[in-house]
Amino acid sequence: xxxxxxxxxxxxxxxxxLSEVAERGGSIHSKRRRIMEGVADLIGxxxxxxxxxxxADGECGQPTNLAAIHNWSERQLAWAHQASQDPEFPPPxxxxxxxxxxxxxxxxxxxxxxxxxxxxxxxxxxxxxRKPLDMGYFVYSLLPIQxxxxxxxxxxxxxxxxxxxxxxxxxxxxxxxxxxxxxxHYAAIPGVDVEKEVETLSPRLRSVLGLLVDGMRxxxxxxxxxxxxxxxxxxxxxxxxxxxxxxxxxLMRRFMAGxxxxxxxxxxxxxxxxx
Length: 275
Known about the structure:
Layout: H1 8-23, H2 28-43, E1 47-54, E2 64-70, H3 74-84, H4 94-103, E3 107-110, H5 111-114, H6 117-122, H7 124-133, E4 138-146, E5 150-157, H8 168-180, H9 183-186, H10 194-198, H11 203-213, H12 218-225, H13 229-243, H14 248-256
Antiparallel strand pairs: 1-2, 1-5, 3-4, 4-5
Helix pairs in contact: 1-2, 3-7, 3-11, 3-12, 12-13
């Protein structure tokens, strides 16, 4: 059983991870990914994600996740975007998370600290979205970076089949790393007014935007969202016009490069909006 508090071994492991990241070359994004991988390994998480989260509605519903660093599959990412925009079956933890964001303080919470596990696993949202995605117990770390509407968010998840909640030790370890590594939240974040520019988009456009920013191609978006490529192409054109860009690469650069535009490297320089 994992201990409640950090041991000397935990502290040494964190120091080694942060030293490794500080000494390695590469972009902010590659360093951010290494920290996420390292923390996930230390607390036994199967999946991780870091993202900029905008509560575009100003309420506890339909947040938009952008500029993500993760180890999720395309299917998991697409379904997660759909799940976050489903007003009928929203994640039951959202109504608990929003007051934390609104308070404007950095908080790290496990599933069981937000909602009774039996209630969460029995929810329609969990059965409809999380179980097919193989995502069960989680721990979230949220740092508001723009009033209470935009946050730097870290999510660590365990497989649905693992009946093993994250412990207080796991929560503390994640919180310490997320609290002390300031650039994890502020370096190379989206160079746009996320709240203002997302709030006028429809839920479907927000889902497509999140997947485009993650680098997903038009055909993959269509496949995972159950849409035709023609429909997705129309959505992409609307998004290009909304953000004043001419290509997929330009849209990704605008959200992912932040103030460090020279660090953006696209794996695919083609524009796929009109294929």
